[in-house]
């Protein structure tokens, strides 16, 4: 790892990176919750942080829980603002149509990715500068192996 940033924290369990080089530090559930098929619940982590100005933390799903159990985060990526001092919570959603999923206290339910972030100065203009993409979006380049756009 090249860079690190100090993040002040109060926590029942301090989030930890599983390996050197990992982008996400795992967040643990501070409570047990049963999620029925299709149900969502906001789950506590017992973690509160003070990010330095110019940083953001994203609460993102763990892929193992997603692949194996269909467990995701409704608002992924959840945005933790630098000024937020409350408990970080995870809005879990059980997307599985048949199986309930039980979160036990202490389980690693999500991961926290800390990143530098720019604040935009929104500069209002009459007309935006042109670009190759222009207004094309929402599948404008097609979905097959070949590029189907106007600039192919
Ligand atoms: O997954 C999340 C997302 C957000 N938050 C906390 C930190 C964040 O700083 C605050 C507000 O989040 P956001 O701005 O996404 O929600 P909002 O609906 O816009 O609320 P607000 O009006 O308080 O900004 O809630 C979490 O604990 N977990
Ligand atoms: Mg907000």
Automatic annotation (TrEMBL):
Keywords: Hydrolase, Magnesium, Metal-binding, Nucleotide metabolism. Its EC number is 3.6.1.23. Substrate binds at residues 62-64, 75, 79-81. Its cofactor is Mg(2+). Pathway: Pyrimidine metabolism; dUMP biosynthesis; dUMP from dCTP (dUTP route): step 2/2. The keyword Hydrolase applies. Residues 13-142 form the dUTPase-like domain. It is an enzyme of class 3 (hydrolase). It catalyses: dUTP + H2O = dUMP + diphosphate + H(+). InterPro entries: dUTPase, dUTPase-like, dUTPase-like_sf, dUTPase_trimeric. It comes from the Bacteria. This enzyme is involved in nucleotide metabolism: it produces dUMP, the immediate precursor of thymidine nucleotides and it decreases the intracellular concentration of dUTP so that uracil cannot be incorporated into DNA. PANTHER family: DEOXYURIDINE 5'-TRIPHOSPHATE NUCLEOTIDOHYDROLASE. Belongs to the dUTPase family. This is Deoxyuridine 5'-triphosphate nucleotidohydrolase. It comes from Agromyces marinus. The gene is dut.
């Amino acid at each position: 790892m090249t860079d690190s940033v100090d993040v002040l924290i109060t926590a029942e369990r301090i989030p930890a990176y599983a390996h050197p080089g990992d982008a996400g530090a795992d967040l643990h559930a501070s409570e047990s919750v049963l999620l029925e098929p299709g149900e969502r619940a906001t789950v506590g982590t017992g973690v509160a942080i003070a990010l330095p100005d110019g940083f953001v933390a994203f609460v993102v799903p763990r892929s193992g829980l997603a692949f194996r159990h269909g467990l995701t985060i409704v608002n992924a990526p959840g945005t933790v603002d630098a000024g937020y001092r409350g408990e970080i919570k995870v809005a879990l959603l059980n997307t599985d149509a048949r199986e309930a999923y039980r979160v036990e206290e202490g389980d690693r339910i999500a991961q926290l990715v800390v990143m530098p972030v720019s604040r935009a100065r929104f500069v209002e203009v009459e007309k935006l500068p042109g670009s190759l993409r222009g207004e094309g979006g929402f599948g404008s380049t097609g979905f097959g192996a070949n590029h189907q756009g106007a600039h192919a």
